[in-house]
Design a protein that fits this description.
Elements (H helix, E strand, L loop, with lengths): L16 E4 L5 H12 L3 E6 L2 H10 L7 E5 L5 H14 L5 E4 L17 H26 L4 E6 L14 H21 L4 E6 L16 H12 L10 E3 L2 E2 L3
Parallel strand pairs: 1-2, 1-4, 2-3, 4-5, 5-6, 6-7
Antiparallel strand pairs: 7-8
């Protein structure tokens, strides 16, 4: 009489912790919602913690827990404090979505000598992402896994030609260069770094006329959830590679 087949225990679901910057409204909020629907624990970053707490309450009951955290990406002290808190609380970070943005200076011109808008855009889009990546990479390296998504824009692509939005355009182009450089450095580590263009989305920044926020967020969540082996150092829109 043969023995009954041994029943193997069910695979334990992979526990993931994600941080989304600029997530109390618009595109970031929708990214946080979709990641939580996938069962991830989502840290909802917001400059104004009260607004972050209000946003997190709206997502109560999702499969994954959503926790509001104070995060101004232009402040190194807040980035460092949050990194220490994540390490103490979770001991890991698996997904980082650098979404914090703004500074859509449509009337800005490259000939204008007023650099304050450009410096502000660079502080958020480039240096904000840089600060977070540098502070949180040790938590990804610990487990040999990470998905970093830098939310960029098609107007930052080298082939995009327009005289408008010079601060926004220049800062997103710089973010693209940083994405490629960081991806090359981390190649083979299990940590992949990609940029995503969500397209023109009907948010407070994008204004009316764009496509639904959920559609723009889906491509970001796709890049944040790529299974191994995953592409790295690429620029995507709706899951399709686009030129840098």
């Amino acid at each position: 009489m043969s023995r009954p087949a041994r029943r193997l225990p069910a695979a334990t679901p992979v526990y993931r912790v994600a941080l989304v910057s600029g997530a109390n409204r618009g595109l970031g909020f929708e990214v946080a919602r979709q990641l939580s629907e996938r069962g991830m624990t989502v840290l909802l970053g917001a400059r104004d913690l009260d607004k972050g707490l209000h946003a997190a309450r709206q997502l109560a009951g999702a499969p994954g827990e959503v926790i509001a955290v104070q995060l101004d990406v232009t402040r190194q002290d807040q980035v460092d404090t949050l990194a220490r808190w994540i390490e103490i609380t979770y001991g890991r970070l698996d997904v980082l979505v650098n979404n914090a943005g703004g500074h859509y200076d449509y009337a800005g011109r490259a000939s204008d000598g007023e650099l304050t808008p450009v410096l502000d855009a660079m502080q958020t889009h480039l240096f904000g992402a840089w600060r977070l990546c540098s502070a949180l990479l040790p938590l990804m390296r610990r487990h040999g896994y990470g998905r970093i998504v830098n939310v960029s824009s098609g107007c930052g692509a080298s082939g995009s030609t327009s005289s408008h939005c010079v601060a926004y355009r220049t800062s997103k182009s710089a973010l693209n260069a940083y994405t490629r450089t960081l991806a090359a450095e981390l190649d083979g580590s299990g940590i992949v770094v990609n940029a995503v263009c969500p397209g023109w989305v009907a948010t407070e920044l994008g204004g009316p006329g764009g496509r639904p926020v959920a559609a723009g967020a889906t491509g970001i969540v796709w890049a944040a959830s790529l299974p191994a082996p995953a592409p790295t150092g690429r620029f995507f829109r709706d899951g399709e590679a686009i030129p840098w």
